[in-house]
Specification:
Order of helices and strands: EHEEHHEHEEHEHEHHHHEHEEHEEH
Number of helices: 13
Oligomer: single chain
Strand content: 15-25%
Radius of gyration: 24 Å
Shape: globular
Strand order of the largest sheet: 5-6-1-7-8
Length: 392
Amino acid sequence: MLQRVIFHIDVNSAFLSWSAVERLKKGDTLDLREIPSIIGGDMSSRHGVVLAKSIPAKAFHISTGEPVAHALQKCPHLLLEPPDHKLYHGYSQRLMELLRTFCPKIEQVSIDECYMDFSEYVEDYESSVTAAVLMKDTVRSRLGFTVNIGISSNKLLAKMASDFQKPDKVHTLFPEEISTKMWPLPVRELFMVGKSAAATLEKLEVLTIGDLAHMDLKILESHMKSHGRLIWEFANGMDDSQVQTEESELKGVGNSTTLAKNAETASDAKEVLHSLCRQVSSRLKRYGQLAGMISTEIRYDSFVNVSHQTQLPAVTDDEKILYHHACILFDELWNGEPIRLLGVRTSKLATEPEPVQMTLFDLPKTQKEIQADQAAEALRKKFGKDVIHKGW
């Protein structure tokens, strides 16, 4: 049985981050995330509440939801930025589109957070943590803001994990980690334990999540009815709710990797491109998609990013064809400098059942070639992506 792997992705201080990125795009040299600042109200009226705060503002004990006037008393030099909900909606859409290129099984639960059922896609990576780190780093490099990602076998624990140390972090909270990572936390930090519930629990001398997990359920239900059972189950990591995915158009499939050691030769770089194209090909096949365009991305050791894209002669999911064109683009791009990151991305996707127009130089695969491809893909799914390779 396939083991469940659930991600919870949460934007770090979303409104403030998105406003900060937009200001920087327009040439502002001041990053709202690096100074005491908040989103909410306006300076002239001093009305409204704090919708989001920077980490430096948090040092002044400013909290989300408190009146702006109170926040200004705590920090008179606090910078106020009015909210721009149209802007935030646009950033949220771009985030979800990018995340779907990694995995289409997403349940968006608010403008700045979502769950992802990554169970079927872990095999494309060394581990779930490797995949999540790549995902958060891609969000930061492409969109300019950071996210936290929590990983577990259910939605509750994934959400709890994403709330651990911030920003720009990946945390796990699997069932075997509950006793060390979750039970020592104050009971008010458990999902679905609000101020009223926390007050009731504290009267019962339940101070930590571990205290709640070990409490007599009958006593808890006598004080808190069905809500008591719910939070007791949560304290014990129990949650069987499913990621409720919505049908959405997949706009692209890609992968990128930051190299452990800079690539300084074309052969070293193309070996990485080969691996990336193998992964992209595997994911296209899994999604039932064929790519009509491919792009290659290079980030130099100087952190300068360059990329080229090209239309493919015909839509395809074939690893060899993707690799061939990725290498052509690489040769056009590379200036000889050491390479820190390489990426391959496909777009202009078509669903597999659609007729594929062939070029004059294409020959259809024989039945033996098709069967060989299918057998190789089945072996990779069963034993891992590196179990078999094509000869070039």
